[in-house]
Amino acid sequence: MDGVGLAAVEVGTVMPVDEPQQVRLRRVLMDCYATLHGYLVHRVGGDQNTADDLLQQACFEASRCRRVPYGDDACEAWLHGIAKNLLRRHWRRQRRQGRLLSIDHLQQQGALVEAMESGPLPAERLAATETIAQLTSAVATLSEADRQLIFACYFDGRSHADLAKELGVSPKTVETRLYRARRRLRAAMREE
Amino acid sequence: MTSGNHADRYFHENLIGVGERLRAQVGEVDDSRARCTAILENADIQMNRRRRPRFRGPALLSTLGLAASLGLAVTLLFPLNSGPTVQAATVLAHLAQQVQDDDLLEVVIESVTMDEVTVSGRLQISDTAVAGDLQAVIADANEPLPIEVDATLALSDAGGWILLRKLQVPDPNVQTILGAIIPPGSQLLLTLPPDLTREKLELGNELKLAKIRTVAGGEVAKFVQEVMRSQSAVGAEIVSQNDGTVLVTIPLRDTESLRNLIEIGAQAMGKDVDGDIDMEDSDLDDLLGGTFRIVYDPKAGAVRSFSVSDVAEMKGTVTVSLRGGAIDPDLLNATRVTTPATRTLDIGAAAGILKALGLGEPE
């Protein structure tokens, strides 16, 4: 028996009272696609193809579930949770593969951290795909807590005060944690 | 070289710069409806591809279920960092070097659930035979009924058989046809030629499944001895039993104890703890909540059994007992389980029927 086609439901469909859960899931997926996709692209360092793969996997995992949460908001939050877990798995894999990085890549990472510590990088190097790739592969080697902090502060651009509020700590503590995370990131980029 | 503080400050500012560029790039990402539809269609294809080969004949029970359960149990006992299959193969290969030829392995699977598959059963495994009972339920949210199989099987060099007491599939049309083959109140005895059973047993041996034996000395015993010595560091509870063995229970309560346990396991296998172990807390968190139990015979210096419960995505318990002797010959005898209502069918004919029903290529 084939399931309901994932792409069969258009955005804006009015939800009937007895809407089957698979239909509802697909409708919510279409509604929150842009947010979810943006979040994933962000977290994988701008790599759209990897984000696509993760989102596809999230859709697949969600479709396999027997109970989809009631209410569109709950369903969207649940989908975000699935995406987050897949992302975590992705980073773990990256971390393991990190040990297999070529010497060239590691030398380039070493050169990048030297350059980043020596002064402001030129705009074109800041925006270079290689810079982002080398940074994200180094961030992948950090612990979950460090990784989240680096992403939230630098990649999402969130303020220390905002993060302090979310974490329930003082902004000074956020600064300290961030300093330590940076130190570990620099060390990771230097490792050969 | 820039001084420490300056280096960190430049690094911080450059990170801000990279983040700003990244955010600008993300803003340009294609999140159009067309792309979304394409991704969702791919997920749909993935879903259907997964669903299609769901039932692959009795071989699913005889080989895959056993391999998965046993491999998982052994893998979880030694959760090193080189991938579950490699870990299991490494541990089994190590154990295989220490075995004696006439030993027997007994596996008891108590309602083990992983994802949508639940398996229960009891199997005896030797180098030349596998026999026992297995029940499996595969529940798919998208199907009105689960797939259910209840079987007794015996495979040896001389041939084999699988007695199907229950075989239920969700598709009502297929179920109607199966109902004609196994009418209510009857059961089906599938007979397997020696060539096929030998092939399955060779596969088992390749996977080293039939080669875990009573371990006299060697890595596992060393591991248990070290766990007993480091009882508090790994949170182990040790109870002496009337038969002279000790029951070592290791509840996986916290990350630190688990890390210690892994290090002991690695050392027992001659692994370099610093070089070979790299597990972050989030990896270990997945294993918390489970329990290992090992029955150890201090006199013989041998492990008698080990079990794994509720670890990671696996719920339920798998117990592997290691003992001397041969497989119970009665278990190989089909007449002990057949009744006058039992129908007999050659596996080749059954394979043809399954194929004609579109139930996948029988293995």
Describe the overall structure.
The complex is a heterodimer of chains A (192) and B (363). Chain A has 192 residues and is an all-alpha fold. Helix content of chain A is 72%, strand content 0%. Chain A has helices at residues 21-31, 33-43, 48-64, 72-98, 103-118, 123-127, 129-139, 144-155, 160-167, 171-190. Chain A is globular and about 60 Å long. The model of chain A is unreliable at 1-18 (pLDDT under 50). Chain B has 363 residues and is α+β, with helices and mostly antiparallel strands. Helix content of chain B is 40%, strand content 27%. In chain B, strands 1, 2, 3, 4, 5, 6, 7, 8, 9, 10, 11, 12 and 13 form a 13-stranded mixed sheet that branches. In chain B, a hairpin with a 2-residue loop joins strand 4 (147-156) and strand 5. The longest helix of chain B has 24 residues, at 4-27. Chains A and B meet through helix 1, helix 2, helix 3, helix 4 and helix 5 of A and helix 1, helix 2 and helix 11 of B.
Secondary structure: elements and pairs:
The complex is a heterodimer of chains A (192) and B (363).
Chain A (H helix, E strand, L loop, with lengths): L20 H11 L1 H11 L4 H17 L7 H27 L4 H16 L4 H5 L1 H11 L4 H12 L4 H8 L3 H20 L2
Chain B lengths: L3 H24 L5 H19 L7 H19 L6 H13 L6 E12 L2 E9 L3 E10 L8 E10 L2 E10 L3 H10 L5 E6 L1 H13 L8 E2 L1 H12 L1 H4 L2 E4 L5 E6 L3 H14 L4 H4 L4 H5 L5 E7 L4 E8 L5 E10 L17 E5 H10 L7
Parallel strand pairs in B: 6-13
Antiparallel strand pairs in B: 1-2, 1-12, 2-3, 3-4, 4-5, 5-6, 7-11, 8-9, 9-10, 10-11, 11-12
